[in-house]
Description:
The chain has helices at residues 2-19, 22-34, 53-59, 63-66, 85-97, 142-161, 163-231, 250-256, 260-263, 268-275, 283-286; strands at 39-44, 47-51, 103-110, 116-128, 131-140, 237-239, 245-248. It has 287 residues and is of the alpha+beta class.
Amino acid sequence: MAKKQSNKLHKAESNTTLLQNPWDFVETYRALYENAAVAILLLKDGVYVDCNRMTEELLGIPKSEVIGKSPFSFSPKFQLDGVESEGRIEQILNQVYSSDSPVSFEWLNVRFDNTFFISRVNLNKIDISGQIFILVFISDVTEYKRNINELDLHKNYLEGVVAERNREQIELNQKLSLTVEELNATNSELEYINKELNETVKNLNREVQIRKELHDLLLLNQEKFRSFIDQSSDGVAIVDIEGRIIEWNNSMFHITGVSHSVAVKSSIYELNYQLLPQSKRSDDNVE
Length: 287
């Protein structure tokens, strides 16, 4: 029994000796700092110079993006009571620097993804190697506040931040109403135009079909007419109103000796004159 008690005493003394090592104290406090259940930040000259892991989780960004930022970087323009955040932060920090007493207050924060949360903030002025720092403890109390009075949370915030936006929203709604009316009128016009277009397309399709049928019929009649002329044993020549030959069948070629390619587009008067015997070619005959 005495031996066991001696061993326990030896272990206790050994542990006490380890904790008395300054580096062990540093590591112990560092472990407590990093694994604390609340966000802990170190503020110097208005910017954060260090933070723990809970801060990264609370703000949703890595430590590297927290360092060098000011408290205003994680605050909206207005607080819940309508006071501007920047002025309130400056007022609170001046209070902490001028007093040795801790300062505690509630604060509306905004993450970098633009989500809001309410926190309980505690500020303590500390001296590290002759330099003044502010130790910041932040606890998320959003759910607690929401359970107490969710309506007041939104009402107070909206009264401070959205007063100007309400006016703009009313103007936008008025413009939107006018736009909706214009769109309805435009839709009615488009429906009417669409009906007319459909009717026009039907008429055009009908006209195109008729023209196609007439064209096909014309080509067929042309072929029949040309075949009739070509097969006629009589000489056939067709001229237009200006006396230009537009058709000249094979019988005319055999009669006159003038080919189709020479006759077509020639003047019937000049061709007739050329076909006269030399003795009959006179000015009177030309006339």
